Amino acid sequence: MRRVVLVAGLLAVASLALAGPAGTSLNVAEDVARPALRVDARGWAEVGWTAAGARRYLLIPPTGRVLPGRRLTRPDASRPTSAVAIPFRKALRRTPDGRFWALQLWRVHPGGPLELRFSRWRGRPTEIVLETVEPRADGYVVRGRATFHGKPVPQWSLTPEGKRIRTYAYIDRASATGWRRIGGVIVRADGTFSRFVPGLGVTRLRAVLPAPNVSSTTWAPDAVSPPLTPGL
Predict the structure, then answer these.
(1) How many angstroms separate the first and last alpha carbons of the chain?
(2) Distance between CA 180 and CA 205 in Å, rounded?
(3) What is the pLDDT of residues 23-72, one digit of tens each?
(4) What would the pLDDT profile of 186-217 be if each residue is shown by its tens digit?
């Protein structure tokens, strides 16, 4: 799954923003420093970051297209919170209406750039677990489950233009230099997924989920499973 990438260059940011988010929750920028998040009482969110020696901003309305270079005009109504746990967290805030707002920074594609990603939701965050790893003659069959609000994650994300994009989980294998991507697998209607992983020997495996857009107002946070070692 891919998200809209709003890169540091202002012209590139503006051209991408015109199309709106085109996949899972909003990918704000790549390889950033000092990310920050503010949210006003109306549900407008301001994301700030530093890139190429300059401070950049993105204003995200409650619905609709994002506004590069714009900032909040009302006070920040959000507060830091630790009420839920999410991976790759750079900022996690809560507004008086009970909604959570987050920035996550991680390499969605191993070897790729660090991506700063924005999400907003209510209740329990996205969760993904590896439930079993079954040895086979030439590898393993990995089975897991992905949920949001404790229920199966949606099988599809909808873009503002109405395009449907399928929800995938990805399996990574630990290596001496970090995590190596094995491949993706479609998440079923009940939230489960399974994939064959070739190769034998004790190794750590994990599943990651670039979480789907649930609605125009709910962008679920990304999730990663605790690592699992076959046979342990």
Answers:
(1) 31
(2) 10
(3) 356 789 999 999 999 999 999 999 999 999 999 999 999 988 889 999 99
(4) 999 999 999 998 887 767 899 999 988 888 89
To which residue do tokens 């995200």 refer?
Answer: 60
If phi > 0 it is left, if psi is from -120 to 50 it is alpha, else beta; for residue 82 that is: alpha
DSSP per residue, 94-143: E-TTS-EEEEEEE-SSTTS--EEEEEEESSS-EEEEEEEEEEETTEEEEE
Residues 6+ apart with CB under 8 A from 37: 45, 46, 47, 48, 78, 91, 93, 101, 102, 103, 118
Q: How much is the pTM?
A: 0.85
- Please identify which residue in the block is written with the tokens 């409650």: 62
Query: Helix (H, G, I), strand (E, B), or coil: what is residue 166?
Result: strand
The structural domains of the chain, ordered by start, are 10-121 (no CATH), 126-224 (2.60.40)
Could you read off the pLDDT of 67-120 as tens digits, one per residue? 999 999 999 999 999 999 999 999 999 999 999 999 999 999 888 899 999 999
